[in-house]
Amino acid sequence: MSAEWWREAIVYQVYPRSFADADGDGQGDLRGLISRLDHLSGLGVDAVWLSPFYPSPLADGGYDVADYRDVDPRYGTLADFDRLVAEAGARGIRVIVDIVPNHCSVEHPWFREALRGVGRDRFIFRDRPNGWQSKFGGPAWTQVEDGQWYLHLFDASQPDWNWRHPEVVAMFEDVLRFWLDRGVTGFRIDVANMLFKQDGLPEVELPPGTPLIPADAAVPYENQPELLELYRSWRAILDGYPGARMSVAEIWYGNAEVARPYLTGDGLAQLFNFRLMPAPWSAARFREVIEESHRLAVETGGSIPWVLGNHDVPRMVTRYGIDQDLVRDPTAEVLLGQVEVDVVLGTRRARAAALLLLALPGSAYIYQGDELGLPEHLTIPAGERQDPMFERTARTFIGRDGCRVPLPWSGQATPYGFADVPVRPWLPQPEEWGRLSVAAQQAADGSTLELYRRAIAERRRHPALGDGDLTWLEHGPEVLAFRREPGFTLVVNFGAEPVPFTGTVLLASGPLDGGLLPCDTAVWLA
After folding, report:
1. H or E stretch including 449?
2. Which residues are marked as active site?
3. H/E element holding 48?
4. pLDDT tens digits for range 426-483
5. Which of 158, 247, 259, 372 has its CA 20 to 30 A from that of 512?
């Protein structure tokens, strides 16, 4: 793997609260993650990205940070973190951590001071609010006791930083160095395009839509020009450390031109390509996104890793298991919670999508549990939902809890090995997850876990896979096919009828019918 290892890496996202629970309190922790590192090593990943594990009231799943330089006691200690970095490194796995620079928690010491009138200009306070709306629904302003209002583009528990204040800039530079000194490989930057707000905070009108999914219209709190200089300064910090440190930015965009300025080579190392996630199951739509994104990467020389799942988006099995002819955006439909899901169909399509993901040029990120073929948990009782989006939208959107349910490791009843003792996990697990556990799928011929393991192993072996180029092949309107040199072809049948294929089969997402590729199936060919 090249010095810029991230250009073809397989990165596995861990949501620490839901990965593995070592102390039996119903919540995942760092020691639990350490105990399951062999699962990640066996899967064959190059790096692990940890969602926030910092001290937090958990009003928004840890993305409300109270202290950027410590570990929440629920997850362990800094010593546990250091051990994690060491033991992951011994297995050849790098560690990437989340940084949340747009906002903090109301419990952050600087915001507590601001409420007392000290250092209030580190945040965005106004005597009267404008009409901006929160990404989670409802107004983006909350009033404090003295009558002023503070801005929070997400939950009221998450006040936005004022990135025009030099102390904020300096504080985050110190945070970067703190974790780099502890051996992290880099950072995933949360809502990386929203840090700076346009001077004067002008009003904006947006069409109605789904929270978290941005409109294509330019808004005065996204993609401000100051961001480019900020990320150049961060890149200089990263480059000052040995071992090819990197950053990957969370930026949702509908127009590829929005992404282009970030891919200059002297700022961000990577910019997530999220555009496949909301795409319906369609050969034409998938090809359109892949063509546009790959062209952008080639033209800019940038790295745009492919993503099909994360902690903010309903799981693939459920997205692809709903009637694709009736929806424009499966993600939005699932968030509304009023869907009928064919899990068998969704699983078949999700397995095909996994082979597509791992065959594309560049890097790929895998969300925990996708390698098990987990569906979205849609029937969490209202009283147990914790995503602030649920209440802020008057329960219109069910929120993101369904993709954050603790993982099943073994057994036939909750907690399915998530903890070694009988405990009620912080989010309830579905009753039927025993058949999807790691233990149930381990070495099981045809299991989704074994499909991922075989695909990642083949990706490492095959000289055509990883970073590079592709050439499209024409196989009809319902088939997506491309060739990669030397000697590799991917074919995915999105249609309702089997289609012929030729070549030596390296791997298939499902059973084949002689020389025919069944519907909703992908095949890797030599």
Report:
1. helix 448-461
2. 190, 250
3. strand 47-50
4. 999 999 999 999 999 999 999 999 999 999 999 999 999 999 999 999 989 999 999 9
5. 372
